[in-house]
Amino acid sequence: MKVYAHRGYSGAYPENTMLAFRKAAELGTDGIELDVHLTRDGVLVVHHDETLDRTTDGSGRICDLSYQEVRSHNAAKLWSDRYAPEKVPAFEEYCEWAATQDLVTNIEIKTDNTYYPDIERKTWDMIVKYGLEKKVLFSSFNHFSMTRMKEIVPDYVRLGALVEHESGVKVFPGAYCKAAGFQCYHPPVARLNDENVADCKANGIQINVWTVNDMAGLEKLYAWDIEGIITNYPGVPLGWLASKKA
Ligand code: G3P
Ligand code: CA
Q: Which of 18, 38, 142, 164 makes the best surface tag, with the fewest CB within 10 Å?
C-alpha cells in the first residue's frame, strides 16, 4: 500500500506549496498528490481551488489572472502565524524538484469546474521535459481529461477516474474504468465497500483512495490490498506500515 501526501504534507504545512512537498518527501512518502490549473497567460500552476481566495491573500479566478499576478500572493495565508510566505508553485518548479526525488506524483487535472483548453498536453509536455514519465499518475473528476490524456501519453502511464461522494447511483467502478481505458479508480474512502473493491479486482483496476485522515480504517484498507492511500498526514500510515513489516 503506497502513501501519497495529499496536496503535500497539508496536515501540517500550507497545502500545495513547495514547503508542503519538501516536508512530505522528508517523511519518506511514496508519492505526492497535487492539483494543476492554467493561468490566463497559459502557465501551469499548482493550486487546489479555482480561485485564490481561500488559501492566499489574493482573490480571483486563476484563469483570469496572469502568472505574475498569481505569484504575487502568499499561499501560506492560512498558516501565517507559523510559516513565512510561500508562493503558488509553478508546475515547472515542482517538476524540476520532483526530478531529484524518489517519489511518484499523482497529478490531478482540475478541470471539473473550469475546462482549460489543452491543459492535458501542456502538463504532459512538462513531465517529458523533466524526465518524469515513469514517476507520474494522473487523475481527474472530469473523465474527459483522462480520455484526452490517454490519447497523449504512452500505455504505461496510469490514469485514474476520480469520483465524488455517494450519488445514490449504483456503480461498477472496475467495469467502468476498464471500459474507459483507465487503470485506476480514485474514490473517497467512504465510498469503498466489499462489492466495489471486488469489482475493481475482477477488472484489474487499482484503487487509490482519498482522503484517509482517520487512521482507524487502515487495517481494512490493507486487508483489501488497496494500491494507494492519499492522506494529509503521511507520517502516520508510513509509520504504521513500517511497523507491520517489522
Ligand atoms: O485526488 C484526491 C483528492 O485530492 C480529490 O479531491 O478536492 O482534494 O482535490 P480534492
Ligand atoms: Ca486533488
A: 164
Tens digits of residue pLDDT in 19-28: 999 999 999 9
Q: Tell whether ligand 1 has an atom less than 6 A from the beta carbon of residue 140.
A: no
Provide the 8-state DSSP code for 202.
H
Residue 69 CA: distances (Å) to CA of 54, 62, 143, 224, 232: 16, 9, 30, 45, 28
Q: Is 230 in the pocket of ligand 1 (CB under 6 A)?
A: yes
| Residue ranges, the chain, pLDDT below 70 | 168-169
Stretch (H or E) spanning 238? helix 235-245
Instruction: Give pTM, 2 decimals.
Output: 0.98
37 is catalytic: no
Is 165 an annotated catalytic residue? no
The answer for residues whose C-beta is within 8 angstroms of residue 145's C-beta and 6 or more apart is 109, 111, 119, 120
DSSP 38: E
C-alpha cell at 171: 456503480
Residue 101 Cα to chain centre, angstroms: 17
Cα–Cα distance measured from residue 7 to residue 20, given in angstroms and rounded to the nearest whole number: 7
Phi, psi (rounded to 5 degrees) for 71: -70, -15
Q: Is the CB of 186 under 6 A from ligand 1?
A: yes
Q: Which domains does the chain have, with CATH numbers?
A: 2-245 (3.20.20.190)
Look at strands 31-38 and 206-209 and give their pairing. unpaired
Which residues on neighbouring strands pair with residue 231, listed in sequence order?
A: 5
For the chain, give the number of residues.
Answer: 246
